[in-house]
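Pasting as-is:
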Amino acid sequence: MAGSCRSSAIDFDSIPLTALNFTVRKKLSLYLNPKHVSAADWTALAEAMGFEYLEIKNYEQHQNPTKMILENWQGTSAQATVGRLLEMLIAVERVDVISDLQGLIEEDCRKYLKKQQLQEQPVQVPEVDSCVPKTLEMNGITIDDDPSGHMPELFDAFICYCNKDIDFVHEMIRQLEQTECKLKLCVFDRDVLPGTCVWSITSELIEKRCKRMVVIISDDYLDSDACDFQTKFALSLCPGARSKRLIPVKYKPMKKKFPSILRFLTLCDYTNPCTTSWFWGRLAKALSLP
């Protein structure tokens, strides 16, 4: 692609992989999922991304392995950019894929850059627009939130959990909120008001209202679409765990395999009898960091 995409004005190396939309990802899957005798498939791309043999064998069980490696790579690697993906496709000699998808890739990247530019534009001064009454979707979304949006409710941590693990969430509330720790947790079923879009609120809380996110890992967590979305969204905000934003917690034995996208993060393990007495202190300290 070097000659074509690289010649455009777009700096693909600075654009995260999350800029690529569903159409591009679906077409990548159509090219890379099938096994080829002479052309590299998704397994070659997975190796280039740094996935190990056993991880790749595990992805073989999925109906759409290309989709899985793209999502997991963008959630765990600081190098998960559009430019790096293009370089890897060139390295595995799949320039044909790039040639066919170049227009769609450039279109997604331009949309991403345009959205970034709009977000960076200065907000109008209050004197200009304060006379216009507004009801914004992200104002008044939690129990103690400011309906006007001037003082949004903030939290130390967003708790990612499935309903079957709610008893441990209550224990977490007792240990971290109702003790000298005095932490403020965002528990969706307790703190979020009903009536607005679940995905919009979740993204707002994780990205802008909560310093960190605690992920309660269990067999039931692995079956939850909501937990899957929350985890991958949080990982996309901190590639390579640079901001220590996400903290996985295991509180009971598991029969299923620990999620691979969290394998590189230090685990807070409540099931280890040797460290149980230190568990809440370590977790509280991690959540108290600036």
